[in-house]
Design brief:
Blueprint: H1 8-17, H2 19-39, H3 44-55, H4 59-68, H5 77-102, H6 107-130, H7 132-139, H8 144-164, H9 169-179, H10 182-210, H11 216-244, H12 249-258, H13 264-275, H14 282-319
Helix pairs in contact: 2-3, 2-5, 2-11, 3-5, 3-13, 4-14, 5-6, 6-9, 8-9, 8-10, 11-12, 11-14, 12-14, 13-14
Length: 350
């Protein structure tokens, strides 16, 4: 669904300008989990898994709440999208390497897995960018049922192939959305919306079945500390990313709050360690951590506007600027009778 909101040109532009942001996001948000794992005396590979858990935001949760709050067209959303795409691309490299480390493979095995993953990502990306219009024409149908089944089948095929090649299935599904444009994208958004809501609910039901309430008290303090630290680093990352593209204070607050939620990928990463029989605390800690931020993240997204408005008013008052005054006006100037367009107003996509 997130891919349907953006064109291939917007994706490539976002990736070109988002490399620095993606690098900062990786370093700043991988560090809390890695540091905690090492501080607890875990093996390095287990600490690497916990770093992955804290690093990646939940694109599924974020996309759902952005749509519910009607923020997909906001000025800060391209910065958020760029970070989410970069995170999924990092996962295409991270997961194969971690899988090799877990089975005790050598350098050659790791490099081979990495090469396959990178080649698969590049191939799918090139197909989405160069052949998006022919794909859209081939998919277009006057029947809603035929269009729904065709798009849904394409998503399953590409995402499944990507997963088989040890690449993020989310990347495959996202690129299918990017490849579709025009009337197909407009109609697919409406048709796939109910399925998105259904699968989001099913995921959290499944996640709840994996959490044993009896294990939560033993890791609650660690999960709270890790959640607070990584929420702060995500907020800082989103704030900085939005500031780089000229978004004002309220939009920066929204961007930071948007990235806090964790979900599906964090559970997958922790599950690798649990399946390999690593540190027994990893599973309960990751589950409690994800549960906490899956609840707190959407709440922060909803509270971001009033918080941003309060901070913007405080900042304006400290600078002696009357709210609504034209940019560059003298301190204390009265607002114009016909103010300029709101710089935080949404930009509609497509």
């Amino acid at each position: 669904m997130l891919g349907l909101e953006y064109t291939a040109e917007e994706l490539t532009s976002g990736l070109r300008t988002g490399m620095a942001t993606g690098a900062v996001d990786l370093v700043v948000n991988f560090a809390p989990g890695l540091a905690l794992g090492l501080a607890l005396g875990w093996e390095p590979v287990t600490a690497l898994l916990l770093g992955g858990v804290t690093y990646i935001s939940s694109s599924g949760v974020i996309a759902k709440v952005l749509a519910d709050l009607d923020r997909l067209g906001n000025r800060e959303t391209p910065a958020v999208l760029s970070i989410l795409v970069m995170e999924d691309l990092v996962m295409a490299v991270y997961l194969p390497l971690v899988a090799v480390l877990l089975v005790g493979g050598g350098v050659a095995s790791g490099l081979l897995s990495l090469a396959i993953a990178v080649a698969a990502v590049v191939a799918v990306l090139v197909l989405a960018l160069r052949f998006g219009e022919p794909v859209s024409r081939a998919v277009l149908s006057h029947s809603n049922e035929a269009l729904l089944l065709t798009v849904f089948g394409a998503v399953l095929l590409v995402a499944g192939t990507a997963q088989r090649l040890q690449v993020s299935s989310a990347i495959g599904a996202f690129l299918v959305g990017i490849a579709l444009s025009g009337e197909v994208a407009d109609r697919a958004r409406g048709l796939l919306g109910p399925l998105r809501d259904l699968f989001a609910a099913v995921f959290f039901v499944f996640f709840g079945l994996q959490v044993d309430p009896a294990t939560i008290p033993s890791v609650a303090v660690l999960a709270l500390a890790l959640g607070a630290a990584s929420a702060a680093t995500k907020i800082a990352t989103g704030w900085w990313a939005a500031a780089r593209i000229g978004v004002r204070l309220r939009g920066r607050v929204r961007a930071g709050a948007t990235l806090v939620a964790r979900g599906e990928f964090s559970i997958v990463i922790a599950g690798l360690g649990v399946a390999a029989g690593l540190e027994p605390q990893l599973g309960p800690l990751a589950a409690t951590y994800v549960l906490l931020l899956a609840i707190v993240g959407p709440l922060l997204m909803r509270a971001a506007d009033p918080i941003g408005g309060y901070l913007a008013a405080r900042s304006a008052a400290a600078a002696g600027v009357v709210p609504g005054a034209a940019p560059g006006a003298a301190p204390g100037a009265t607002p114009p009778s016909r103010p300029a367009a709101d710089p935080e107003a949404p930009l509609r996509r497509r």
